[in-house]
Each structure stands twice: as structure tokens, then as C-alpha cells.
Design brief:
Blueprint (H helix, E strand, L loop, with lengths): L1 E10 L2 E7 L4 E5 L6 H13 L19 E9 L2 E10 L3 E6 L3 E2 L10 E4 L4 H5 L2 H15 L1 H23 L4 H39 L9 E6 L14 H14 L1 H7 L10 E6 L2 E2 H4 L2 H23 L4 E4 L8 H9 L7 E5 L7 H7 L3 E7 L2 E8 L1
Parallel strand pairs: 3-13, 3-14, 8-12, 12-13
Antiparallel strand pairs: 1-2, 1-4, 4-5, 5-6, 6-7, 9-10, 10-11, 14-15
Length: about 375
């Protein structure tokens, strides 16, 4: 998918914006707090239907306004479409493609994106919930089935936890647990199976890229399911077998779950490990090594989405050039080819190695961003 034109109304610090963007590299230049990241966020919303920064649409509305509109002309394959994402407190959020509204449930947007920002270092350094979120958002972009299974799992998990909390005082609630166990095991088995498959694909690309960017030691990415039996199952394991084993694990911990009033096993307690020569990078890797791991992870995302969809994702590079050295910049810019649209933010052009970019490809547009305005400064070919 390519974004051709972007229109914003009452979105963050943009009261009104209407710009044409290029199919290659779009460089957004400006001081901090002028609106560069807000524009990156708007592109993310066009592609996926949701923000990567906020779970509340009300936080995206310009101060003193009642709602926002993000609208874009996009090309997918040979067809052009108009995508509109509109929010108001009364109607909530609506996604429209060429007119009719699309249902939000299960909607994955029009395309896929890979976001790279300094905050991504927390995928390695932070807690398990950040790694689960990273994995879920990635898979959800390419699989409507996964979005459905994960959503169902979350809903059943919430209901089951409510039953667990009340089962100490109600026999009827305790009897309901068997029903919730079956539903949790069915949805959870699908989530676990898909997560494991995706991690193996990401690990393969990351391990190959790591030495190319000067990374030292062997990089490995491993899925750490809370259900330890998953690791012993082959990739071709039947879902029924995973579901049955999941249900047996739930039975084993039922007494403890009732005592604590919470579900203790399942995908909601999974983790992902990043290992350098078998050592946990979260604890033992330097910050430079951790940055290299994140860079490898982003390349893995790009290749995974491309292989799953047959289409290149949009690359959103938000304030990362100041965080990586020139050699890593060169590798990153080399991925911006004719079939990959990218948006890159920077405070000044000195942060971007344009000489290396010019030696690889031509198309780029430079925009200046200031106080909620965005204007083309120059174009290169």
C-alpha cells in the first residue's frame, strides 16, 4: 500500500492539513513538539485503523474540538481508494473506505506498517507485556484470524477471571469453570500456535542480519510460552492436541487459581527472549547491543510482512537517526527501495546520510514541520 495524499482535521496539533506525499522516502524536518510524530501517527491510523501511541481516540482530538478526521488517498495494487478514520464522542470511531463504514471488530485497516522509534528499545529492556504487545500487533496486521482469536481469548479470559473471583463464594460459579476452560483452551491454542510460528520466522531473519550490522555473538529469539508443553509440540501439531493439553494444565492449577482469583496459565503470561550467545540480552547485553537487536527485529518485521502479504509495509522511522550510527543508518536506508514507502522524522538534515541515500535510489521529498503545519521544502529525483 502507498499513501498518496493526507488530510487531517482537528487531529492532535493539526487543525487542518492537506499534503501530497511521495512513494519513496518522505523526510519530515522540524524542532521537537512541532507535529512530526503526530503525522507519523496519522499515517499509522490510515494503514491499520488504530494509533500506536494511544488506546483512547479522545486523546487524539485537538484541544477544544469535538472530534478528528484522518483521511488519505491510498493505492493498493492497481486501485486507488479513499480511507477515512473519523472519531466523535457521540458516534465513536468509524472507518470508511470509498464511502461505506467498515465494522471496527476485526478490522485490520488497509495495509501494514513497521514503526521504528527510540521507545522500541523497551521491547528488549522492558517487561513481558511489551513483548507480547509487539508480537500481537505484528501478527494482527497480517492475519484477521489471529485478531479474532486473540480478541476472543481476551474476552473469555476476563469472564473466567470474574468466575474465579466469585467461585470461592458460589458453587454455581465453580460449575461454570469447565465451560470457560474449554473456551479459553480453544482460543488460546490458536494464539499459541500462531505466535510460535511467527517467532521462528522472525528469529531466522534476525540471526542472518545481526552479523551484517556488526553485531557480536549469535542472536537468537525464542518464544517462552507460559504453557511449557508447547515447546515439545512440533510445528505440525494438531490444534486439538494443543487444546486438550491446555485444558489439562488448567485443571492442574485450578485450586491455586480459585485461591488467587486469577488465571495463571495461558498466552496472557507468555514472553519472548532475546539471547546473545545464550545469554538474556535484557540483563547482560550493553545498550549498543540492545539497539542492534531492535534494528534486527525491525528488519525481521519488514520481511515477515512482505512474505505474508506479498506487499511491502510502510516504514515509519520516528526520531531514530540520532540513536544509531552511520553504518546502521546506511543499512536502514538501503531497505528503502522503489517498492517501500518510508516516512522519517529528524530535527535537521545532518541526521540523515543523504549522500548514501542518493547512491542507492532517487525519490525523496523533504517537508518542514512547524507548529501544526507541514510544507514541502524540496524534491529530489
Amino acid at each position: 500500500m502507498l499513501v498518496r495524499r493526507i488530510f487531517l482535521s482537528n487531529f492532535r496539533n493539526y487543525h487542518r492539513l492537506d499534503i501530497h506525499v511521495g512513494p519513496g522516502l518522505n523526510i519530515l524536518l522540524g524542532d521537537n513538539a512541532q507535529g512530526k510524530t503526530n503525522l507519523i501517527e496519522a499515517i499509522h491510523i490510515v494503514a491499520t485503523g488504530r494509533s500506536h501511541r494511544s488506546a483512547r481516540d479522545s486523546e487524539l482530538v485537538s484541544w477544544g474540538r469535538q472530534g478528528y478526521l484522518v483521511k488519505a488517498k491510498v493505492t493498493r495494487g492497481e486501485a486507488d481508494s479513499i480511507v477515512e478514520v473519523e472519531y466523535s464522542p457521540v458516534r465513536g470511531k468509524e472507518i470508511r473506505v470509498n464511502g461505506p463504514a467498515r465494522p471496527l471488530a476485526g478490522s485490520g485497516g488497509m495495509g501494514a506498517v513497521v514503526v521504528f522509534s527510540p521507545d522500541d528499545l523497551q521491547i528488549v529492556k522492558g517487561g513481558p507485556s511489551l513483548r507480547r504487545r509487539f508480537l500481537d500487533l505484528l501478527i494482527a496486521q497480517v492475519s484477521q484470524g489471529y485478531r479474532y482469536d486473540l480478541g476472543r481469548y481476551v474476552r473469555v479470559l476476563s469472564q473466567r477471571n470474574a468466575v474465579l473471583r466469585s467461585s470461592r463464594f458460589s458453587r454455581s460459579a465453580l460449575a461454570d469453570l469447565d465451560i470457560w476452560d474449554e473456551q479459553l483452551a480453544e482460543a488460546g491454542a490458536r494464539v499459541v500456535k500462531r505466535r510460535r510460528s511467527v517467532i521462528e520466522k522472525l528469529a531466522e531473519v534476525a540471526a542472518a542480519v545481526h552479523p551484517r550490522i556488526g553485531g557480536t555473538g549469535k542472536l537468537d529469539i525464542r518464544y517462552l510460552p507460559s504453557l511449557s508443553f508447547v515447546e515439545s509440540f512440533s510445528d505440525g501439531a494438531r490444534l486439538d492436541s494443543l487444546k486438550d493439553e491446555f485444558a489439562r494444565n488448567l485443571k492442574k492449577v485450578r485450586s491455586e487459581e480459585i485461591e488467587r482469583g486469577v488465571s495463571l496459565v495461558g498466552p496472557h503470561r507468555d514472553d519472548v527472549a532475546f539471547l546473545i550467545e545464550g545469554m538474556d540480552a535484557r540483563t547482560y547485553a550493553s545498550q549498543g547491543q540492545q539497539r542492534s537487536i531492535v534494528l534486527c527485529l525491525k528488519f525481521s518485521e519488514l520481511e515477515f510482512i512482505r512474505s505474508e502479504t506479498g506487499d511491502a509495509p510502510i516504514l515509519l522511522l520516528d526520531d531514530v537517526m540520532s540513536e544509531i550510527d552511520r553504518s546502521h543508518q546506511e543499512l536502514l536506508l538501503s531497505y528503502i527501495s522503489q517498492d517501500l514507502q518510508a516516512f522519517l522524522t529528524a530535527t535537521h538534515l545532518g541526521q540523515v546520510d543523504l549522500g548514501h541515500l542518493d547512491s542507492n535510489r532517487g525519490s525523496r521529498i523533504i517537508f518542514t514541520v512547524e507548529n501544526g503545519t507541514c510544507k514541502p521544502m524540496s524534491a529530489g529525483a
